[in-house]
Amino acid sequence: MPPIDTAVPLLLLWAVIGYGFGSIPFGLLLTRIMGLGNLRDIGSGNIGTTNVLRTGSKKAAALTLLLDGGKGAVAVLLARAFAGEDAAQLAGLTAFLGHCFPIWLRFQGGKGVATFLGLMLALAWPVGVACCLTWLATAYFSKISSMGAIMSAVAAPFWCLLLGAPATAVLASVLAALILLRHKENILRLRLGTEPKIGQK
């Protein structure tokens, strides 16, 4: 373990790198490159996968899901390889924050679900797989993307404890709380029964 006087700057460096990866707005970039219009003017205006799907392009939505998840995973894996587990968890957190609050978009980003799943897969792959399956099963049966996201996030800390990754449980809890906050309007609509279903504009 590096001495404190070098460990802190190293952690800060990976926090910045993680934020940089997370803040790349793939959904916005892909829809522009593919000629699908300004994502900010479509549906909810969100830059994430669910709103990209509202453009009618499943290809763009799939690419957004993979790239938003990938940037979280890459941030974690690079930080772990070069600076250890503490840096990996910090990079994962800041990658998530970068997606939700990108400086390039005046801190108006996505809700972080794909990035969350990607970084969980990189931090502890059994937990990540369990979270992905929780999202898929919930979304499949409810036909509501936000329901899948919420259930996956809430289940994450429990999956960490059940699947032998207790060191990741704290981070998972923090991310779950942030995801719930980012979905507060969705939660209200779910209570009112007005939350749109997957693919619905």
UniProtKB/TrEMBL annotation:
Q: Which pathway does the UniProt entry assign to this protein?
A: Lipid metabolism; phospholipid metabolism
Mind listing the GO biological process terms from this record?
phospholipid biosynthetic process
Q: Which keywords describe this protein according to UniProt?
A: Acyltransferase, Cell membrane, Lipid biosynthesis, Lipid metabolism, Membrane, Phospholipid biosynthesis, Phospholipid metabolism, Transferase, Transmembrane, Transmembrane helix
Q: Which InterPro entries match?
A: G3P_acylTferase_PlsY
Please state where this protein is localized: Cell membrane
Is Glycoprotein a UniProt keyword of this protein?
no
Enzyme Commission code: 2.3.1.275
What job does this protein perform?
Catalyzes the transfer of an acyl group from acyl-phosphate (acyl-PO(4)) to glycerol-3-phosphate (G3P) to form lysophosphatidic acid (LPA). This enzyme utilizes acyl-phosphate as fatty acyl donor, but not acyl-CoA or acyl-ACP.
Q: How does it assemble?
A: Probably interacts with PlsX.
The similarity comment for this entry is: Belongs to the PlsY family.
Protein name per its UniProtKB record: Glycerol-3-phosphate acyltransferase
Which organism was this protein described from? Phaeobacter porticola
The primary gene name is: plsY
